[in-house]
Design goal:
Elements: H1 27-47, H2 52-62, H3 72-77, E1 79-83, E2 88-89, H4 92-109, H5 115-136, H6 143-148, E3 150-154, H7 167-177
Antiparallel strand pairs: 1-2, 1-3
Helix pairs in contact: 1-2, 2-4, 4-5
Length: 186
């Protein structure tokens, strides 16, 4: 078994390295962008007939990966989702991971007989947890962002600028890249 770590195009900023730290994006802009995305999802739901709820769910899950880290709402409000280990705009995978909590709310609405009540309860609980975490975190990272290793930033930040990765994210990234030492396999 090889003891060399796998090659990767990712570069994680280390603890001893200094890198620019993205400021917390405006919660007002983030909220406006989310509201606009919900309106787009609602229009898709209403206009596409029986498949509407699935199309709305897919839009909400994949939206942040559509325009290089910007959904329609984020594009209009000038905020962007970046994948912290690379500093690039969020991909579809990142978008699905970061929006999974909200996708769960839509899935709850599909429950027979409880549909709208389950949707409201899920929106209140999950939305409340996500909003509280986003508000309290110094970088505005909510639960979905932590899962996807993303952060919402001001969309006017120059592309290609070195990115900041918090120690928490670096620990998770380095754990994934760690290859067991040959002696530990005995």
């Amino acid at each position: 078994m090889s003891t060399t770590p796998p090659r990767s195009g990712l570069r994680v900023v280390g603890l001893g390295e200094e890198g620019p730290k993205y400021p917390k994006a405006s919660l007002l802009l983030r909220g406006g962008a989310r509201l606009l995305d919900l309106v787009v999802a609602w229009v898709l739901y209403v206009s596409t007939g029986p498949a509407g709820i699935v199309i709305a769910l897919l839009y909400l899950l994949f939206a942040d990966g559509m325009l290089q880290g910007q959904s329609v709402g984020k594009k209009l409000f000038g905020v962007k989702v970046i994948y912290l280990p690379t500093g690039a705009g969020a991909r579809h995978r990142d978008s699905v991971l970061r929006n999974a909590p909200f996708g769960l709310v839509i899935i709850l609405s599909m429950m027979p007989e409880l549909g709208f009540k389950a949707f409201l309860a899920g929106a209140a609980v999950i939305g409340g947890i996500e909003a509280f975490r986003c508000w309290r975190d110094p970088e505005g990272v909510r639960l979905g962002d932590a899962w996807a290793q993303t952060q919402v930033i001001d969309g006017k930040v120059p592309h290609g600028q070195p990115q900041y990765v918090s120690p928490r994210d670096e620990a998770r990234a380095s754990a994934r890249l760690r290859v067991p030492h040959r002696d530990s396999l005995d």
